[in-house]
């Protein structure tokens, strides 16, 4: 127990009377918010009791009271918290659950919350879990209400909408013939869940403001009397925060975004499919046999409406199987791949790229269902499956229809409509489903994570900067290491402390406050050098984001010839859809000094636009010398690149538009040039692959990340290099040096580094097993190409050599990745190779082409990407004498751009 918590405990024990948090804070001369937090800790431990009502009064617990409370806790401990029963609670939903729990537990009455997420991501269920957690953590009374209301039901009638939420006074509008209680009043003491809250018009948002700010509201039509209520608001929406008034967004302090099904792990998808089938077993009171390929398809297809779509598709196919069972005297209820909707069946095609993991899951299914025949999965009806007897199910409706309807009319039975009508308890059993094996370990002790969030909340408030989950996690890892080093009396030395303090005075003052809180919690003394590292965690996050948003660098293309520069720049501008950049042509009969004066005058006239720097792209060395002279004469920071190609102009212009700084654009241009040279001179000595692992000290967190990565790589082929990150430019120069000897495949660290095309993985990513596997595949030398060839040799017979086809396609994919400046997961590359192989096969067989929706609009939007892919495809077209249409090119672009790793620095 910390010193301050002991002080509070001793005060209550010695006083022997009831006291509120303000009284305790005044007596101990400390912060009231901290006192409230410690009081809640003492209450959870059973050391104090607290009263209902406001203000809350606390008193030291007697021995008898402690025993009674402990018995209640023990009785309740057999039941896990609701969130723990959600599939993904220890993985993709972990952060969201932490946010939700924090919102419920926040004193004194929780934080109003808005849940963002696509249709079918489980927002309503998540809100119900928040309510269950509030009950189980005793933040609300046991009989506290949970009121659900869908704003969309009355979106076209604002008066009725407001009347439902806030109540109505008699005579407020035509038909209001009596006073009517609103949902706000019904929810008093509990939670009001407003689904589709984006359908609440601005006037309704304003009425909600008043309640959030002041704790009271007025029923519709009431002008003099106000009503009070203690209600926590939880909203849910499929829209973004931009659809709300800015004043509304500020008043909802907790925003939680639920991931779509595409961001959920395959283990979670497995848990959902298994759970939904077991639900249907409970409804049917009948075994269900599912073909293995049907299970694979359900686990791999892309559902339009996320989790809700998966459940609905399973309901439909089970209803279809039941109808067949009842009308054909079948001996069992059997579901085959062909019974699934076509879009679901296509999921089976995705299996090749995920086979290793899928095979593990199918083995797990076999064990879970005691199924010896791995070609089918049997879901057994037994006593452990919860029965749903609350209302007639869709199966009972089918049963009734079968009894009442002749065979011919059964063909017109609308199963989907029956499914839609059978939606009570849409995810009823979902909350009861135990999560599958978690893939992320508990890395941070609860007390470290709690303090991390507390001090970062303080930093956000003081600095006006939002720090995301990844930044907090990185600091938490660092804090664990720092505490350990301090307790072992290991020296902590910051090499540039004085300079850091001068550059970041505000962040340094906040770091001092953070250190004070950490010292009290962990009973340690934090040295000034460590406070320097804390300052870096705060200030680096700020500087990276601000620079990316603010920096604008000028581009001048300067070439010999009457129109070389203007032609090259025009091509790049058209591909990017921009007018940025300046072209200066140098006809051979014009004196060099005249051109220099022309460039200098342009730079002087454009100083305001070029204050972030200028990149000069030239064709020969004599023009490159302009850079130093222009810089000295104008004071502008100028870099020059010679032997410029169209690709260099294109990429330099692209990332300048994106707001990147001059040194990044310059380094990227050099890298493109070097890469093109390397491609031509294939005999260059091979370089060992490397992963760079970095943190501020180069020790604590870097060591943890190093230990996480080393087991997944072959150290004879891949070197994991630990580095210290203190200053961005110096760090990148160090990487430049390393790249002479190493092929740097990835950068891992606590601070995101944008370096050419090297993928970046945060500390949080590396402690996620699924993301770690992506890194492992990027570093692996496993011959996926040969596996692809083996898989296709029996399926493609229109070409003389499948290996030649695949090797050609592989070369083409490498070029497309390079030209698009993207990196793909190796498993995705295998899928693309197969797609392109079958595309060539279909063109040789002259099979029909599937049109691409809105091809003209898409081609205009993705003009650059379309041109890059078209160019790369020429080699295949000429090799096999085929033509690949714009529709097919658009599909290929869509595949590439839709599967880019989201951690790429370009």
Describe the structure.
It is a single chain. The protein has 39 helices and 20 strands. With 906 residues, the protein is α/β, with parallel strands linked by helices. The chain is globular and about 95 Å long. The model is unreliable at 73-81, 383-392, 418-442, 541-551 and 679-684 (pLDDT under 50). The strands form 6 sheets. Strands 4-5-8-3-9 form a 5-stranded parallel β-sheet.
What's this, in brief?
The protein has about 900 residues and is an alpha/beta fold.
Topology:
Blueprint: H1 3-15, H2 21-28, H3 32-44, E1 48-50, E2 58-60, H4 63-76, H5 94-105, E3 113-116, H6 123-136, E4 146-150, H7 158-166, H8 183-186, E5 191-195, H9 202-214, E6 216-217, E7 227-228, E8 232-237, H10 246-251, E9 254-257, H11 266-284, E10 288-291, H12 292-300, H13 306-327, E11 334-335, H14 342-345, H15 355-369, E12 376-379, H16 394-404, H17 407-410, H18 415-421, H19 446-463, H20 469-487, H21 497-503, H22 505-522, H23 528-550, E13 554-560, H24 564-576, E14 582-586, H25 592-605, E15 614-618, H26 621-624, H27 626-634, E16 638-641, H28 646-657, H29 662-680, E17 688-695, H30 700-709, E18 718-724, H31 728-738, E19 742-749, E20 760-762, H32 763-766, H33 769-779, H34 784-792, H35 802-820, H36 826-844, H37 855-861, H38 863-880, H39 886-898
Parallel strand pairs: 3-8, 3-9, 4-5, 5-8, 10-11, 13-14, 13-15, 15-16, 17-18, 17-19, 19-20
Antiparallel strand pairs: 1-2, 6-7, 10-12
